[in-house]
Amino acid sequence: MTNSEKGFFLYETVLSLLVLSIIMTAMFPVIIQVQTERMMIREQREAVMLVRKEMLKQYEDPQSDFPEKLEGEEQIYPLTVNNKGAHVLEYCLNWEGRNSRAQTYCLSLYLP
Fold first, then answer.
1. Are 47 and 27 contacting, i.e. CB atoms less than 8 angstroms apart?
2. How many CB atoms lie within 10 A of CB 99?
3. Could you please report the per-residue DSSP string of 40-85?
4. Residue pLDDT, tens place only, 36-50
5. Which helix (H) or strand (E) holds 109?
6. I need a labelling partner for 5 at 20 to 30 A (CA). Which of 19, 63, 69, 87 fits?
7. Cβ–Cβ < 8 Å for 55, 67
8. pTM
């Protein structure tokens, strides 16, 4: 190759691809972890929405029965309702998330 020609040699191209592949290999587990955490946040938001809807139903009709589970788009959440006093109900969802960790979300409802 003469001085007037511009371009890359083969070893420069191979070296740049090697560096790129090493960087991508190091970043792959991080990308997977970020995706898993995004799914957990989506599950938690869904759980909050479902509990609040169920609490609103109970507030509007205190004589209605409690469901054993709440079904969302992503998962089925088991529901437990505890009587914490004369006018206080605690709604708790316990489930195993997509990252195999136990998740719990509880809200209290104060009835008139």
1. no
2. 12
3. HHHHHHHHHHHHHHHHHHHHH-TTSPPPSEEE-SS-EEEEEEEE-S
4. 889 889 988 998 899
5. strand 102-110
6. 19
7. no
8. 0.69
